[in-house]
């Protein structure tokens, strides 16, 4: 299975929420997430690229590895497991050659609509975003699925000019660089 998603920056969260109510889409209560990513020195375009993330969600630590499923944006294989010790997990990642990249803090609300998951994210320093994702078989038509996901966002009042192709960690690194903000290594 692979995860296909589309993402957009929301210009007007209240209008979006009104549109979701019209489709009987109800979001969960807020979940606080702290994501810390670890990267090797490979470029995103390299077929061997992958990234690790340690997500702290409430008192649960989740280790995630993502790697490209194709050359398309937002088309990745994703593997997750709960870990017991963040410090030891960081030592393992460092030993494997992965170094701290960036921390992203967000408040997430999720919802289901048919076979889709929607995520409404308030990302510190970056703003409000919506993601729509679907798990698909490896041989599914990715372009068709992304078009279907995007059709839902259009139905919810999100315009094509609001589409975002970057992950939050990439946007955060750019924000920190543009604003010359040093982010210390965290564990």
Structural key phrases:
187 residues; alpha+beta; Hypothetical Protein Pfu-838710-001; 8-stranded antiparallel beta barrel
Can you characterise this structure?
It is a single chain. The protein has one domain: Hypothetical Protein Pfu-838710-001 (Beta Barrel), CATH 2.40.320. The protein is α+β, with helices and mostly antiparallel strands and 187 residues long. Helices cover 24% and strands 42% of the residues. Strands 1-5-4-3-2-6-7-8 form an eight-stranded antiparallel beta barrel. The chain is globular. The protein has four helices and nine strands, in the order βαββββαβββαβα.
List the helices and strands and how they pair.
Layout: E1 2-9, H1 13-22, E2 31-39, E3 50-57, E4 60-68, E5 75-83, H2 86-95, E6 99-113, E7 116-123, E8 127-136, H3 142-155, E9 163-164, H4 168-178
Antiparallel strand pairs: 1-5, 1-8, 1-9, 2-3, 2-6, 3-4, 4-5, 6-7, 7-8
In short:
The chain is an alpha+beta fold. The chain is built from 4 helices and 9 strands. The longest helix has 14 residues.
The H/E string reads EHEEEEHEEEHEH
Structure class: alpha+beta
CATH architecture: Beta Barrel
Report the sheet with the most strands, covering strand number, pairing sense and barrel closure: 8 strands, antiparallel, barrel
